[in-house]
Design a protein that fits this description.
This protein is mainly alpha-helical. It is built from six helices and no strands. It has one domain. Helix 1 (3-20) packs across helix 5, helix 1 (3-20) packs across helix 6 (127-155) and helix 4 runs antiparallel to helix 5 (84-102). It starts with a helix and ends with a helix.
Length: 156
């Protein structure tokens, strides 16, 4: 999936979680950070397009170890040592990214090092992804708009 779709989906997940959990707003930063982070294993991604990431990209395959549950867990626990909410946000962002990539035709080795891939039917950058993106965008605009309107009406 494309960067923009991952960001929109992670935002939607944040809005959904904040409906049930009383979490600090800054957790969203770690959710978005993790969502972007997962694709540093490919240089054509927005997050991976940095010269200093080349050695890492030479050592790992795209959708290899970084696109696995074990990497998400280990990295989130590491971030969680700094702050539990930060670790939670990182985990949510990581899992959100993996979930979307599992819907794609190329799939993800979710249980790396096992070779088995979890695949879907969506082509990255295709029409179905565009539809998913637009629906997520509209949903997020609706939630933010509703929040802003309720805030404005409380002020009156
Ligand atoms: Zn990915």
């Amino acid at each position: 999936m494309l960067f923009k779709t991952h960001i929109m989906f992670s935002l939607a997940v944040y809005f959904l979680l904040s409906y049930f959990l009383l979490m600090p707003v800054w957790v969203l930063f770690f959710i978005l950070l993790a969502t972007a982070f997962v694709d540093i294993d490919i240089k054509s991604s927005r997050a991976g397009n940095r010269w200093y990431l080349r050695p890492l990209q030479w050592m790992t395959k795209h959708r290899g170890v970084l696109h696995s549950l074990i990497a998400g867990l280990v990295l989130s626990l590491s971030v969680g040592m700094i702050s539990l909410w930060a670790g939670f946000g990182f985990f949510v962002g990581y899992i959100s990214h993996l979930f979307l990539d599992c819907l794609t035709k190329s799939g993800v080795r979710l249980f790396w090092p096992l070779g088995w891939k979890v695949k879907g039917f969506v082509r990255s950058g295709g029409v179905v992804e565009d539809i998913i993106f637009v629906l997520l965008l509209l949903g997020n605009i609706f939630v933010v708009g509703k929040f802003v309107l309720s805030y404005l009406f409380c002020m009156i």
